[in-house]
Every structure is written in structure tokens, then in C-alpha cells.
Amino acid sequence: GTPQYQPPSQSPPLTMSGTSPFDDRGASQPSQPLGSEAAVKQNDFEYDNLEARRAASEAIEIGRATAASVAAQGEQLSRVEDMADEQKYMIDRAARILRGRTWGGWVANMFTSVPERPDRDGTESGNNQVVGVDGGCGADYEYIDVPPQFESAAQVVADYRRHALLFLPACSTRDQKAACRAACDGLRDKARRELRALELAGANSGGQDEEGWGWYNVLSRDKESADEELRGINLAVGAKKESFSSNRAASAAPAGASALLEQSSLPTGYSDELSRKAAMQDDHLSALSSDLNELQNIGRSLHETFNGHNEMLDTLADKSDNLEDQTKRIRRKADRLTERAKLRKTPAQFKELITLRNIETGLHLGCYDDGSSAPKLRSYDERASVWELWTRQGDVVGLKNRQSRRWLGQSMVGYVVCSASTFGRSEEWEFDDGDHQAKRLLCAGANWGAGGWLEILGKEKDQLGVGHYGVEAGTKAARWKVLVHEDNGKS
């Protein structure tokens, strides 16, 4: 009754006579099961096509998102530039007010115009004005008085409308239009997500209040209007492309794999199969060609946009340096006026002993007992090259030579001298904000209080002079390595 083990039956060996069920050689009608080599190759071909088109689509989506992000960065840079212009206006107004505190400045103000506030948008006020809730959208579709929970969505919708309604119609070249259209697509998707998040947030919290739904409706309506405008532009472009393609196809000679197969004399069975594969290949190549053209346009536009951003960053850097220089001048003037109004002047305080070694020549600035009051550049001297650093109000400092006991300053005729016995206005100096390895010295009392950079003059680089002020003049200023003297105490 116990079951006995039975060995498995042996399959007949495969022979070259075609007796194997898997051997289809010599058959008049070849069959191709699912696991056959031809089917695998066909599946691999279709899979590779799909993967290539999927990769191209993902690259386009990334390019569009990048274009939208770069466009948003451009908007931020424009706002920063507007802020810099506004800051310059405020500094000019402050300089005019401070200048009017003196008799000469009051007379000068009578013959000069008041600084004008910069126009933020570069156009007259009121252009492109769209009114929404509580003021709604201002110039260039910028929303104003937006509740905090709607600020992100309002900014995205404003950027989307600005690109779809202002920038895209103004594009003149094909690359610009393609890049702007890609930016519009990215901003549209982002605006849709923002509005969807607001809708879900309102539903989860029991509903928005009346003002909240009002803002939501305004943003949704504005997005839909931009969508309609963008669809109209895309339809017009598509119709133009279709007309151009049909005309070119009618006049051009047949090309492509499918057209070549039509001219061949292959058997009917093989011709149908190859025609189907050739048509698939043509469709695949056409789709890839369109995607690659769009990627090329996006890349060109990003290149142009980045170049524009670099130029804008250079402009912002120059404006920032000018603003810093002007701010320091205003602060020095304000400190002088404040000090002048005091009954008791602020005394100078000793800080430390230093030496000033010029970076270009390697020589030290010193004052020597040779019958001349002009400071000179020479090798290090333990007394003539040492200076006492004194501080007063703000960043103003004084330099008193340890050997001659005289203050470094500017004479009445503009020469750099070391002859004053007191720390006066002409002996006020100011170091720039660089490190101790490359400092520049500004004579704060030069050029009628505007300041002037200390320069090295002469072919032998052995003379000192005070130049002009400003960023451009600062490039000519001498640079000094400030070293704290070991014997750090007054003598």
C-alpha cells in the first residue's frame, strides 16, 4: 500500500531533424511565440522608444521648471535693483538736507534741483492697472494688500500673468518665445498647485471667510484669463506651424524610412511588417525631433537669461559699492555736524601702535627728521615707521607719528603732510572695510569733506597724494598692510 517512487520520464533528445516542438527551422509558416527572439527584439525596440520619449519629456519638464525658476530669479533681481535705486534716492535726499545745514550748502541747494524718486516700473503710473480685492493688482499685475495666507499664490499668479500677458507678446525672436512659453507652462502648473492648496486648506479649516474666498476667486479668475490668452497664442502658433509643414511636405521630395519602403519591391508580407516598423520609427523620430528642438530653444534662452543675470549682478555690485561709499560720506558729514553742535567736543582716544607697509613697493610709511614735513616710503625704521592710532567719533581715526609727534593730514593746498600738532578735521582718516592685509586709506577731510583716497604718485613710486573719492577712484588707491607694533604703547 505504500506508494513507490517513480523517476520522471525522460524527454526525447533534441535532434537536427526538427522533431523538437521548439525547433521551427525549415517550417513553411514560422510561428513566433511570446518568448521568441523576434518578439523580444520587438518589445525591446518599443521599450527603448518609450524610454527615450519619456526621458525627453522629463527633460522638457525640468527645462520648463528651470526657465520658470530663472524667470522668478530675474524678477527678484529687478526688485533688488529697484530697492538700490530707492536707497540712492534716499541717500541723495539726506545729502541735500545735510548740505542745507551750512550756509554754503544752503546757497548750493537753491541752484540745484531736488532729487527725483525713481520710477519703479519704468513707465507712467497707472499702466496695466488691474483692480482686485482691496486694491487687487497694481502696475505690471503686481498684487497689493494681499493677506498673508495668499501671498505665495498671489506672487505666482502675478508672475504667470506678467509672462503670459506682457512678456510673451513682446518676444521678437523664436528662442525668446520658446523660452517664455516654457516659463509660462512652469508658472501655470505652479499657480494651479498653489490654488489647489488654498482650496484644500479652506475645506480642511471649515471654509474660508468672505475676504479669503474673494481673494481665491480673484486669483482663480486671473489665472483662467491668462490660460485663455496663452491658449490663443499657442493655437495661433500651432496653426502657423501646421500650414508651414503642409506646404513644405507638398513641395518636398518623399523622405524617411516609410517613403523609401513605398518605392521598394519587397514581398507583401515582409513589406507590411517593415512598413509598420518604419512608420513607428518615423513617429518616434518626429517626436524626438520636436522635443529636442524645444530643449535646444530652452537651452539657448537659459544661456541668454543667465548672461542677462550676470550683467544685472555686475550692475548691482557697482550700485552697492556706490551706495556704501555715499552712505559713509553722509555718515561722516552727520558726525561732523553733531560734533560741531556739542558744547564739549569728544576727545580722541589712543588705540594702538601700528605700521603701514605698502603692498606694491614693500616699503613702510614714515615721517623722518630730514627737514621736510612730507611723509615718505622707506625701509622699516623702529621709530619713524611707527604710528599711533587714535579714534574719535564713528570710523574716523588719526595717525600720529611716533618720532616727529605730528599728525598725518592734508595741507591747505592739497599735499599730504605730517606737520599738524593737533587732531583736526584735515587730519581725519578712515580705513576701508578690507582685511588688515590690504587696507586703503581715505582722507576724510579732503575734497570739501567728501573724502579722497591716498595714492602713490611718481614714476619712482615715492610720492604720496590725495585723489578723488568714489568707487572708480578707489581702484587707484594705495593698499597697505596694517601691522600691530610689538611695543604696543604710547611713547
From TrEMBL:
Residues covered by region (Disordered): 1-42
InterPro entries recorded: T_SNARE_dom, V_SNARE_CC
Residue ranges of every copy of the V-SNARE coiled-coil homology domain listed in the record: 284-344
Source taxon at top rank: Eukaryota
Keywords: Coiled coil
Annotated ranges, domain T-SNARE coiled-coil homology: 281-337
Coiled coil: 313-340
Compositionally biased tracts (Pro residues): 1-11
One cellular component (GO) term of this entry: plasma membrane
Keyword flag Coiled coil: yes
Keyword Coiled coil found: yes
PANTHER family hit by this protein: SYNAPTOSOMAL ASSOCIATED PROTEIN, SYNAPTOSOMAL-ASSOCIATED PROTEIN 29
Stated family: Belongs to the SNAP-25 family.
Name of protein: t-SNARE coiled-coil homology domain-containing protein
Taxonomic source organism: Odontella aurita
Lineage, broadest ranks: Eukaryota, Sar, Stramenopiles, Ochrophyta, Bacillariophyta
